[in-house]
């Protein structure tokens, strides 16, 4: 603890242990620095200022740059303060400089604190996401709060309306301090899974850099990386998805796509259009009745496909009349949906294709 008793503001900012405390707020670190301030009250001001400076920096850059780039930003700030401080000193002052803080350095520290205060306020009202048109439209006239997952594991948050959201590491959710009576709107950067409480009077809307997702009540995932492919994937229910650039247009309803269970939409950046696809790993949505075990002995293929449709809530398009007399003996209880379809198609010498979030079965009947 004694090694810190001669530290100045810039020393705390550059200290790795101090940075760790500010960034992760560990219980032991909190205990150490609280004890340090009690033991060295003359250092309290510099500790608090350094904390605010780093806290603002980490908040603003949580999802935007890497750890190495954050370190670079910290070093640039400290070097600039030192350079400007040294420029204000005479040669004699520079030669006899001790560890006391010069008047200019104090002014710079105060200025840094003003920047920090603005940064912290900016995090609360306009957090660390790109200030694009979609974000500007979302924030206009709103007081916001922010949920940011700074951990290396998923983090769940319960919203005021009872909906829940699970943020992936590095994701940030911006939302009004209180949802208004007519709507529920949030802005996402990163990846999150939503479980939305049904409310027919207040649709739930997720804005992101590239996509807008609107629902009444459902389970879905939004992937909205600052750099990367934008995806919306529905686990259960139904959502409307729009490009952010189209959402404010009067004719937006003609430009969006409807997603249902086990479908996803991908924004094709090259063609700038929405593509509907089947989810990579479709899940069983409705638990089948006890009579449906997915274990078949000479069962009509048409029956098998209808039961898969009901369980996964996906559209499987096939000729029911053509396949009703094709028998299937197979155990399909442990495979993924696509593996089940492969077994069925191999048994009747058919093939399947994924088109626009649906499954097309091409078969010639059975011999």
Automatic annotation (TrEMBL):
Residue ranges of domain Protein FecR C-terminal in the record: 294-360
Domain FecR protein: 154-239
UniProt protein name: FecR family protein
Organism: Ravibacter arvi
